[in-house]
Amino acid sequence: MGCKSLYFISVIGFIFFSSFAQSLQNDSARLSLDALLQHYASKALARSHSGILYKASLPANLSGMEASVVRQRSGSLWSRGANYSSFRFPPRIIPSPYTRRLAMVFENLGNWSSYYYRIPGHSLVTPVVGFRAYDASNFSSIVITPVNLSLTGDPIFIHFPPFLLPSGLNWTARCVTFSVDGTVVLANMILPNVCSTRKQGHFSIVVEQPKRNEKRAWKVWKWWVIGLVGGFVGLVGICVVCILVRHTRAKKIRKMEKKADQGESFNTVWIGTSKMPSAAVTRTQPILENGYAP
Ligand SMILES: *[C@@H]1O[C@H](CO)[C@@H](O)[C@H](O)[C@H]1NC(C)=O
Ligand SMILES: *[C@@H]1O[C@H](CO)[C@@H](O)[C@H](O)[C@H]1NC(C)=O
Ligand SMILES: *[C@@H]1O[C@H](CO)[C@@H](O)[C@H](O)[C@H]1NC(C)=O
Ligand SMILES: *[C@@H]1O[C@H](CO)[C@@H](O)[C@H](O)[C@H]1NC(C)=O
Ligand SMILES: *[C@@H]1O[C@H](CO)[C@@H](O)[C@H](O)[C@H]1NC(C)=O
Ligand SMILES: *[C@@H]1O[C@H](CO)[C@@H](O)[C@H](O)[C@H]1NC(C)=O
Ligand SMILES: *[C@@H]1O[C@H](CO)[C@@H](O)[C@H](O)[C@H]1NC(C)=O
């Protein structure tokens, strides 16, 4: 194997590591997905009636997800609450800063849930659902600004569809909240399949993965990292040694050839019973181990 192929392998190793590092931080993927779903939802808002939930039509590359939107008067939300999608909003919720009208966008990430949302050591057992409230007081406005909701009474309840737990172990299902401020919180269910929240964001139900598997996965993972880092460092090392060896050999040969040209006396060795000049060997064209002439 020549130095060139080693060099290429090193480069590929580097590319692998950098893409690997990128895949670990994809908050931006979630944010751009939210922005995209909000964009399609706002299209559905254009000619809507207050208090009716409209489904957004999504492009083919988002198939499997759902987004819907509703226009809601703040006064009615405060006095009566509202039920949309899997969310139950109790009375006494007020937007902050106050706006007379709200637009609320609901998401269900369906089979894309675990692609966008993960929590270490846990598995999702329901799709991820989410909601976000926006200021809708100005209907001609293209820019929709998010608003905070201030809950002065009960929390918002989220009703999840029935789910089956993996059999065999004593599983405990818990609620997970990925709130818009970036925090992730695990909490116990208040009722079967029901979670509660006081914040906007995304929600799901998770079960803890068995400890034993977690440890083994970490072990395997650790050896992968050690192996790959070791291999990468090793390759760079081999490449450096390879270049050094080539360099010193070429230098030595040049030196010996120079000596021969100047007609200096050679070192002599004993072959059988006769004394011979040892540098004769280098008179033939040198062929290096790595296969090509310098
Ligand atoms: C997010 O990161 C996970 C690995 O943690 C990866 O499997 C997934 O493809 C990433 N998603 C996006 C949209 O980049
Ligand atoms: C889906 O397609 C739209 C254009 O139709 C594009 O703007 C968007 O980035 C794509 N989203 C994903 C997640 O691939
Ligand atoms: C989810 O399902 C849709 C079809 O309903 C499919 O087109 C899409 O690729 C699936 N997404 C994932 C992440 O498997
Ligand atoms: C929402 O649903 C609950 C029962 O699930 C009901 O008690 C409540 O009155 C409903 N609220 C509205 C505004 O429809
Ligand atoms: C509503 O939005 C439009 C376009 O963004 C803007 O020109 C107008 O001044 C806004 N009206 C109010 C009352 O904010
Ligand atoms: C919503 O509340 C958070 C803190 O809880 C604050 O940082 C943010 O600016 C608020 N947003 C608006 C639109 O008031
Ligand atoms: C499952 O675990 C809970 C506590 O985490 C315990 O109360 C219950 O008895 C366990 N059930 C079985 C069948 O082991």
TrEMBL record:
Name the InterPro entries on file: DUF1191 (IPR010605)
Q: Name one Pfam family in it.
A: DUF1191
Q: Which organism is it from?
A: Protea cynaroides
Q: What is the lineage of its organism?
A: Eukaryota, Viridiplantae, Streptophyta, Embryophyta, Tracheophyta
Q: Where are the transmembrane segments?
A: 221-245
Which keywords fit this entry according to its UniProt record? Answer: Membrane, Signal, Transmembrane, Transmembrane helix
GO CC annotation terms, alphabetical: membrane
What name goes with this protein? Uncharacterized protein
- Which top-rank group of organisms is this from? Eukaryota
Q: Which residues form the signal peptide?
A: 1-21
Question: Phosphoprotein among the record's keywords?
Answer: no
